[in-house]
Amino acid sequence: MTTLTWSDALTLQQPLLDQTHQEFVELLNAFGAALDAEQDALPAFQTLLAHTEAHFEMEERWMAANGFEAQNCHSGQHAMVLNVMREVVRHATELNDREPMRIVRGELAQWFPAHAEMMDAALVYTMQQRGFDPATGQCSSPTAETNISSCGAKSCGH
């Protein structure tokens, strides 16, 4: 069973981010396949976690270069997801409890498309508006006088 299917609906027209997102989906599916095969899924999950850490670090660098406040809601979501994923590893390694891995599989599959559609799309839009070049980390247009603290959603509490 495929956990999450990569499709054009998940692309954001930012090649490096789209590639990273596609890798995330592939690693999530590899982790799901290990669960389905009743194999030890912890190594696949740890690979997914390492990729997610690097993925989020890249986005955090981009946000900082584009004038996002350090404590913006996009970063807050990253922190929450990483905390949950690290706790899943802790449960598996220290408590020999593998059930959280089964739960987090479905949660990540539901969370990711919404996060990409709202949070990451807003980041890409800001990058485009500011002429941000991911290769150099530079913006051709200056950042706004005030830093960005929210994701732009009406429901955002920031």
From TrEMBL:
PROSITE patterns: HEMERYTHRINS (PS00550). Residues 16-122 form the Hemerythrin-like domain. Residues 137-158 are annotated as: Disordered. Keywords: Iron, Metal-binding, Oxygen transport, Transport. InterPro entries: Haemerythrin_Fe_BS (IPR016131), Hemerythrin (IPR050669), Hemerythrin-like (IPR012312), Hemerythrin-like_sf (IPR035938), Hemerythrin_metal-bd (IPR012827). Transmembrane segments: none annotated. Residues 137-152 have a biased composition (Polar residues). The keyword Cell membrane does not apply. Signal peptide: none annotated. PANTHER family: BACTERIOHEMERYTHRIN. NCBIfam families: hemeryth_dom. Belongs to the hemerythrin family. This is Hemerythrin domain-containing protein. It comes from Roseateles rivi.
